[in-house]
Amino acid sequence: MKIAIVCYPTFGGSGVVATELGLELARRGHEIHFITYSQPVRLALLSPNVHYHEVNVPEYPLFHYQPYELALSSKLVDMVKLYKIELLHVHYAIPHAYAGYMAKQMLKDEGINIPMVTTLHGTDITLVGNHPFYKPAVTFSINKSDFVTSVSQSLKDATLELFNIKNEIEVIPNFIELDKNTNDPSIPCQRSVMAKQNERIITHISNFRKVKRIPDVIKIFYNIQKEIPAKLMMVGDGPEKEKAEYLCQELGIVDKVIFFGNSNEIDKILCLTDLFLLPSETESFGLAALEAMACKVPVISSNSGGLPEVNFDGVSGYLSDVGNIEEMAQNALKILKEDDTLQKFKENALSVAKQFDIKNILPLYETLYQKAINKYL
User: Domain 179-354 is classified in which CATH homologous superfamily?
Assistant: First the structure.
């Protein structure tokens, strides 16, 4: 199949998922065309089956905001005709499904019928899409897609609750590449670089937005380190980072917390990690938790959104109500205090992660793609 993938080329979950999906599809022999405004973060190496087409948005004094949707839909039309693309897979309802629909209509006028699959990732529904300014466009884009998927049952339920959706929504969860994410036992983790031998290493990875409840991460760690020697690794960047650094100063734990900023070496950081913290207000899926679990790292998380579908309470980690810092810290200590208990949770985390291996999830997309193509035959 010749497939165009439209996504945000960022460090965020949806961009990573879309990129990894495209690369795995290419390895299975499909021809993949990434169409976006810059090269996706994880699209490091191109292959004969992987192509990248940049969407250029010309600047005109007439426009206060440059019309990306117009440029994207025009680029889609050109690439479909040039490469004989058979299917559009757009990630995010707006602006991508909206632009995809306009491209479909332009192509239809030229006698070309192309199906569009839209994948909902979360923010496009629960935050941006639910804004009154965008709600009609999001509803329209979802209903005009040929097929719609969501990354969790929780997100599907939220979409049906917030919008007047007439289309079916199929849940296809996010995935992990276990072959790539699982720590190689032949390569030792250099824990001594980050912590003393008797210290546990705890990690948080996110975009440091308010929804991630970064102060909760710091406070949970503060309670943990009062009981056992520990270090906290904060990976990522965003609006809450500076406040987090000040909070560490107030609590007197600056020497125990390391702020990395954005990193392309997540696997190396998780290799060192004993426990992952994700106390978010909500997560449509919880990809960061899954990446941790694939590296044998148990997870302490909230029970909001799609997290209970990924982090199994008492198995791969523990779930708590949003904001329950004390319980999260106590659950963390249950896992961390004894080596045998920690090892058991590490093994369980990997076992759960295996259910989300890309080799199990990718055939679901291939089946859906074929169904979409058959719709226009």
Answer: Glycogen Phosphorylase B; (3.40.50.2000)
